[in-house]
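Why do we care about 3D structure at all? Because function follows from shape, and shape follows, mostly, from sequence. That is the central idea of this module. The next example makes it concrete: a single protein chain, its amino acid sequence, and then its structure expressed as tokens.
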Amino acid sequence: MPKLTRLATFVILSALGLFLYACGDDPVSPPDDTTRPTVVSVSPVDGASFVSVSSDISVTFSEAMNQSSMILSTLNIVPAVTGSISYSNKVLTFDPDSFLLGDTTYTVTVSSSAKDKAGNALASPYIWQFSTDLDNTPPTVVSTSPSADAVNVPVNSTISVKFSEDMEPSAMSSAFQINPSVSGGVSYADSTLIFTPASFLTGDQTYEVTVTMAATDTADNHLASDYVWQFTTLNDTDPPNGAIASPDIDAVIGNSTTIAVSASDETGVEKVVFYIDGAEVVGSDDYTEPYEYTWDASGLDTGSVHEITAEVFDVLGNSTFVDTIEVHYLWRLLISDDDEELIHRDINTVHVRSGGSLLEFRVQTWGGWTVYNSEDNLGILVAIYLDTDQNRATGDTTASDGNPAWEPPGVIGLNDIGAEYRIQIGGNASVGDKDALWSWNGSGWTDQGDVDLFNITTNSNYFEVGVLRNRIGLPDAVDVVAFSFTLFKNPTLPGDPGTYKWDWAPNEGTGHATYVVDGSFSGAPPLSGKRAISTAAPDAVNRPRVVAGPEPFN
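And the structure:
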């Protein structure tokens, strides 16, 4: 072959070699790994005897293995042993959950599922044997509960003993002793003996507990000696602690009220039993926190007062009654007048309650009415005067802007308070707005518009009225005087000019009543502004302004 041809051929082959190399198709790359792994060594070694029962079992392979193939099923141990597998640096290690059996021959098989990183498996299972040493080490007590010489131990405690190794469960009952004797049951789990008394231990008692040499491990090794310790129980004769968490004292409650009691005891609370008006509520026992009972109070007398208490029991049977509180059903009595004979249609009672935003009154008179706004004896005129700053030197101190005809002689009236506001219900044409809030401007009264809640019924003797608290300055407390004024005309005498009839409440000589605005009544309607007036006729006898919340007169 001519030199030029040979040179060209060499160049072409060289270029082809470079191209193949650049493409990764190295014609001289090493072949695939097809070599199977082998077991290099094992521990304990094959045929070993007197191996410690605390030993692990390990296998060392000839090369790095596939981690996913190093699982429990890779090793088969007979007799069976539970434990966990780990793998690192070509070594598979089996850690038994407990000591191996003493004086026992174990056969261990490494299955052919063990593979190297290239996926090559062992050529065949690898099998070897070893024999354990005879276990002649006696077990020991590691810890106890209660601990030795413990004091103030709760009487509802269990007693436990932790051993240094697995024990023979059947030997536990006969090995446990307690003095003074206590009936109960012995159980065993996780190297631990547990004694559960059938009843509470005796308080202020020193107990001596013995675990005798009858306790043996699984190799029948006994304790070297009896294990004895003492503890002293708590002398718990003190009653538990408790208090009514809700409702608050003097709260105004609705039809459904949750009574909650906070309770504690160093030994433990067993239950809380609830009482209403001195009588135990059957079925109210609550054994878990929070200790609660939902009371259905519907149907009680409006404004009636009721007592709530509860009895708290600890686990030893010690008990205590929590402080009794009084609550008011739907309304709280503020004013009560007893004189119903001398004054026509005078005030009987004034009830009160407050929600988060609304101050409400429920007024009852001794005499009834046919319509609430009338110029004759068929109607009413009631004014509720409010001293919102509780300063008698400010506001109005008379009932009629100085008109003595409106103030009966000797009656305290508004001289006891300085009223900044009045809520007026009923009246005649000269009075103006029939159900409105008025404010004192320094020399007279100014109509501030309709009240925010008004309920009244025909042929009745009571009404309910409310105003938003922000309309009267959000007071924390108010001094209250109620005034009933009636122009009584004798219907049998045409043209009778009528006779004034009035009543202050509280009555003569008693001054005013004070109400702390606590906002505790949760049943009040959520009002965000003044309610619209009903489209009913002016003399309508049923003009509710509330479109949501409790039913009228509830």
